Structures are given as C-alpha cells and as structure tokens.
Amino acid sequence: MSAPSTNPANTRRERYQAYLNGQEISFGTTLVAKYDRPGPRYTSYPTAPQWHEVIDTAAMHRVLAESNPQQRPLSLYVHIPFCEEHCTFCGCNTIITRKKTVADPYVDAVALELAHLARHLDTSRPVTQLHWGGGTPTYLTCAEIERLWGSIVAHFHCAADAEIGIEVDPRVTTPAQLETLRRLGFNRLSMGVQDLHPMVQQAIHRIQPREQTERIILAARQLGFASINVDLIYGLPHQTPGSFAETVDSIIAFSPDRVACYNFAFVPWLKAQQRAIDPSTLPPPETKLAVLCNTITRFCRAGYEMIGFDHFARHDDELSLALRERTLWRNFQGYSTKGGTDLIGCGITAISDINGHYIQNGKKLTTYQQALAAGALPVERGCHLSGDDRIRRHVIRELLCNGHLDGGRLRDQFGIELRTYFASELAALGPMMEDGLITIASDSLTLTPLGRLFARNIAMRFDAYLDRDLAQQQRYSRTV
Ligand SMILES: C[S@@+](CC[C@H](N)C(=O)[O-])C[C@H]1O[C@@H](n2cnc3c(N)ncnc32)[C@H](O)[C@@H]1O
Ligand code: SF4
User: Can you give the pTM of this predicted structure?
Assistant: First the structure.
C-alpha cells in the first residue's frame, strides 16, 4: 500500500475532474473555497437542533392515533447503542462497554416499548422496512437477537417484500450471528469499513484487516443476503487520493451492492472521542475533494451509480432505478425506495417521523428503562412540522435524492407555485447557476452533475432556519 501523506503540497491541484453517472465533470479550486462551510446533512428538515417541543407519552399517543387512518406502511427502526470500544471518528449515539450483561435488560426494555407502541398503532399496517442500527447491533448474542426479533413479530407483521436490514461491525460479528439473522428473515447487511489503510485505521482506533471484511462479505453472500452495503468515510486522518483509491479498489473487488461514502463529520465540540484526533492530520478541503472525485470516478467506471451526494449503488440496484425514475427517498437510515412510510424508532436516542411529527427518545439508558418499566414511553423532544416546514422538507429531499425539483409536484401536493413561493430563494440561486451547479427552467430546478457535489450547499438555500440561527450554523460539520 502506498504511504499516505498529509503534506498538502503533495495533493493540492488546480483543477478537479470526475466521471459521474456517465458524464465528465471538471471544476477549479475557487469553487472549493466558495462552498466549503458548515452545513447540515439534512437527514431531517427541520434539522434536529430546531426541535424544541417537549413531547410526553400522551402527545406520542395522539400522534400515533392520528397516523392510523392514513394507513401508511410502517418503517421500524431499533437502536442498539452498545459497542465494545470507541472508534475515535464516530459520531453515532453509542454506549461503550464490555459489560455484556447490559444487553439483556435493554432487550427487555425494547420489548416493552414495542408492546406499548403496538397498543396505539394499527398493527395491520404492514412493516415494509425494518432496520436495526447502532452502535453495534451484533453486540447482542444470538439468543438476544432471537428474543428481540420475537418481540417485534409478536406485534408487527413484515410485508413479503420488506427490506429487513442490520448494521454489523465485521470485527465483532460471528458466522453464528449471521446465520441467526438470515434464518430470522434479515435480507440486508450494512457493514462499517471506513478505510482499509493501516495508518488511517490506527489513527481512528479501528483496526480491521482487509481479510476480515472480505470474510464477512463472502459469508453473507453464501447465506443469501440479498443486499450488502459497505460504509466508507473520506476526510479521515492521513488520507490521500492515492491511499483511499486503494481502499476503493479493494471494495470494488468485493462487489458490494451498495456503498456509502460519507464525508467525515468532524465535530469535536459535540463528540468528545473525536478530540483524540489531531486536526493537523486531517486532509484539507482541496485534498478531500480530490479524494471524492477519484472515488466517484472509480465507482462509476466500475458499474456503480452515484446516489444523492454520498452513496453508490450497482447500476441494476433498485436505488439506481429509483434515481433514474426520480422516486428516490431518504430518511434517517439513508436512501430508500420505500417512501411514504411512517418511521417508528425504538431504543435510546431513536427518532420517529410520523405524519409530519419528529419525536426523539431520551439519551440516557437508565431513564429509558425506568420510563418503560413505569408504563410510559421514553419520548423526550420533537418537532411538529408547520405547513412551510413540510413544503421545504419536500424541496430539500427532492434536491438531495433526485437532484430535481418539479413545480408540478409542488402544485399537486401543496397547492403552491414554485416561482412565487420560492421567488427569493430562486433569485439567490443565481450565483450557483453561474457556477454551473444548477439549471432553472420555467417550472423546475435541476442539479447538474457538478451540483451533486455541492448538493448540501444548494439545499441550504431552502432552509428557513439557517440564517436565523447563525450560532447553530457554526456547529455543523463542513460541506466539503
Ligand atoms: C452506526 S455506524 C456503523 C455500524 C457498526 N457499529 C460499525 O462500526 O461497523 C454507521 C456508520 O456511520 C458512519 N459514521 C460514523 N461516524 C461518522 C462521522 N463522524 N462522519 C461520517 N460518518 C460517520 C460510519 O461509516 C459508520 O459505519
Ligand atoms: S463506528 Fe461503529 S463500532 Fe465504532 S464506535 Fe461507532 S458505532 Fe461503535
């Protein structure tokens, strides 16, 4: 493997080029300086810092009851927060402990939460998406996995074509766990890799030899998991275009169905473990963009399509088909073809997105368990979306998922005119049009292939809260 270098002089360049979904793109360094700023990743709109409502059990009951008449399918998310060790880059909601005895009572508490939710939901509504995320869901033993699964299927029923997925850490996942998951009906596996270079792995405190990743992918294929996803991160310490290209080529050789390649969210003011990372080892924005351009080119030339701004899917994957048909959807778990569901989140910190309401569970394990034992729901805060929030959420989702905003859909769904409702936003997009990021037609707006790289910046123009909340703005990770 080539040695990574942190010397910007080795990686700085004047122009960037990439081959993105069949098109060549090229741009200069001025764009990088212009658009590199803090900004949300928009897994929700309004973003979580804007959720100020206190939500209690009675409020959650009302939200659940009001969602039933619409009969939307359900998307069920279960958060398992535990990990054995902390990876220093990690921005997820985790509890780090080697005390495996924490898992059993946690599974009991989630079972209580599922039972409570089921009493207020019309459980004839099919579950079309079920996802266990973390932390590390394979922190659970096989027996605990079976017990948790049992408490889900005791109340809810999965559609025949449901996506049933789980996040696995290849360093701690055993063949027996994979067999158990497959037997229970899991058909999607998502695994963290981040970077295969030993020097980067050392810097992020996550040693995961290439063979470990390869073994788990082979085992999952043999067991018949229909879809395998690999997570990578660009912008980690010591990365260079050359070193990360080797990681990307190895991953392409493993042939996963999907790849998430996240922009490293470096937020040490929010995530204490990230303070172990020396900022001087992080690649500067110019190097990050070079890494990203290389990565896009390599995946797209290898038969993948770029989805949104940080995912890739094989050309024949349903995400790629949905992108071409402009029906792609995005929620807290990433991109999906299953739009129009109500998301029900269980476990500490889990978020529900139900019928225009975001509701988040509390962060403390003891409070979570005590609330459920006392017959309450562990909900804490949330946001009831206004009419304007719903419109802007639609706009931001369309731009980030499908790279296109259709005035006709806005008219049909919300009874508004793109040109008049967003007159000031469209006017403010002028410089982005001149920079070749976006094209504006009489009744639509489309991101160019180059605009996909700056999709967060474009979405920010439609965020009604950003300019009001400048202090908060500084707390987001950077867009480049
Ligand atoms: C819940 S974690 C992964 C599951 C499992 N614990 C593992 O590590 O394999 C989901 C993914 O979020 C991504 N992630 C975590 N922290 C991040 C950060 N600070 N910036 C960007 N991506 C991050 C990583 O790619 C990670 O694999
Ligand atoms: S990356 Fe995965 S294993 Fe590492 S701390 Fe985060 S959730 Fe845990």
Answer: 0.93
